[in-house]
Amino acid sequence: MTIQKWMGLCFLSFVASACGDYLDIKPDKRLVVPSTLKDLQAILDNYSVMNMESTPSLGVVASDDYYLTYNDWQTANLNDRNTYAWEKDVFEATDNRPTDWFIPYRMINYANIALEGLDKIVPNNSELAAWNGIKGSALFFRAWGHYQLAQLFCKDYDAATATQDAGLILRRESDVEATLSRSSVQDSYDFFLHDLQEAAKLLPIQVFTTARPSRVAVYALLARIYLQMRNYGLALAYADDALALQTDLLDYSSLDTSLAYPIEQFNKEVIFQATMNYKGVLSAAKLRVDSLLYASYDDADLRKAVYFWDNKGVLTFKGSYDGSLRLFSGLSTSEVYLIKAECEARLGNEVEGRETLGRLLRLRYRDGQVPLSEEPLLRQVLNERRKELILRGLRWSDLRRLNKEEPYQKTLIRQLDNRQRVLLPNSNLYTFPFPDIVISLNGVEQNPRD
Fold it and tell me: Cross-referenced Pfam families, in alphabetical order (predicted)?
């Protein structure tokens, strides 16, 4: 067992004992009043809320990372069937608490409770580091939750229209009864980017478990966000900042591919630990890997055996960085290397981009022998991103941003019995609707789905 794995398991035990009443803390802050730094840290250390199944999987269900058989689609729950088939009405009027909407806002609420509790505590010198760490963590979690929501319930960021496009309902405080309006996409991004800038000043470089945010995690998330915004200069700068502090990569040749899940939880590539909320359609029993995607992995590509399992001719996925059936959705050094390589390619830094990509790929191919590619560097990087980051919760965001560039647009097709469903590039269906209950309670604008 690695030291990081051991520390992670110790952390889970710590959470179970330290949180006490806060493990079941209610979203309404009036029901529990945390009053000490220990209390506030315990709120943020609630692994089951802040890390485990804490990010939405709605975009994964709608993406082309996998497919379902017609029978498995028919027997799925209504929400998953609607999402998979890109229906206009995803949640249906009876779904008053859709998980993919609720869990990020629950996380945000916990973060706001911690921030409001800190406002009432004046730390002495011996408490200052803990106070800063709690505030930095709460700001990170609030930004992380809002960013996850923006990838689903807002249009993709476009600098030309962001001030006019409808954004999130931003939660700046923990009063769940407050009636709020929608911000713009620009205001939404400004809000969580500001939270992250503040968190970077407060968080330590290293933490004893990646279930807690660190400064490296802030830099990695900023790199991801600026890539999504197509601000390649800042995305590259933050990727470099992250890699200046953490560069570890797994050597896939050292992994035991006979295991059900070859990649350990809390492995050395993980910068921040998180998994998606569970969906039955994404289970190993139902999820099917597209044969064309599988064929895109060279026979010398170690990911082919690490990521995929051939169950009597049916290909499914086993490559989660959680070391379990849960799908990893956190931050990793491998993602940061790919962000860096893409930005270098887009900015014309050809030599640097090839070297950055090579550092990753040499640990993904047998004997480090990476096949030569005649493709342009950017196309190669995007192809490797597709193969490396499968089922990490990133494909939906990538489709949204790359659809704005004609050479990389993709039309998605679902074959459901004798019916074909089509999702065109830049369709309004790439932005999910707000739940009906949110619209009725707050009177906010609904996202168009025509």
Answer: SusD-like_3 (PF14322), SusD_RagB (PF07980)
Give the CATH number of the domain where residue 189 resides.
1.25.40.390
- Spatial contact of 292 and 69, defined as CB atoms under 8 Å apart: no
Q: Which residues of 25-62 are buried (b: 16+ CB within 10 A; e: fewer)?
A: beeebeeeebeebebbbbbbbbbebbbbbbbbbbbbbb
**Does residue 43 fall inside a structural domain?**
yes
CA dihedral 1→306→240→196, nearest 10 degrees, is: -70
Q: What is the DSSP letter of 435?
A: P
DSSP letter assigned to residue 447:
P
Grouping H, G, I as helix, E, B as strand and the rest as coil, residue 329 is coil
Dihedral, CA of residue 300, residue 303, residue 306 and residue 311, to nearest 10: -80
The domain containing residue 119 runs over which residues? 18-50+97-203
Distance between CA atoms of residues 167 and 210, nearest Å: 30
Cβ distance 274 to 56 under 8 Å? no
Residue 57 DSSP SS3: coil
d(CA 406, CA 441): 39
In tens, the pLDDT along 194-232 reads 999 999 999 999 899 999 999 999 999 999 999 999 999
pLDDT in tens, 157-187: 999 999 999 999 999 998 767 768 999 999 9
What is the spatial distance between Cα 338 and Cα 29, in angstroms, rounded to a whole number? 40
**pTM listed for this prediction:** 0.93
Domains held by the chain: number = 1
Whether 44 maps to a domain, the answer reads: yes
DSSP string, 151-213: HHHSPPP-TTTTTTSB------S--TT------BHHHHHHHHHHHHHHHHHHS-S--SSTTS-
Q: What is the pLDDT of residues 251-263, one digit of tens each?
A: 999 999 999 999 9
pLDDT at 12 over 80: no
Range list of β-strands (E), 64-221: none
Q: Identify whether 28 is part of a domain.
A: yes
> Cβ(334)–Cβ(360) under 8 Å?
yes
Contact call for residues 91 and 431 (beta carbons, < 8 A): no
Q: Is 272 helix (H, G, I), strand (E, B) or coil?
A: strand
Asked if residue 20 has pLDDT above 60, the reply is no
| Contact assessment for residue 240 and residue 255, using Cβ atoms and an 8 Å cutoff | no
Give residue for tokens 């998180």: 274
Residue where the block lists tokens 């089509």 = 422
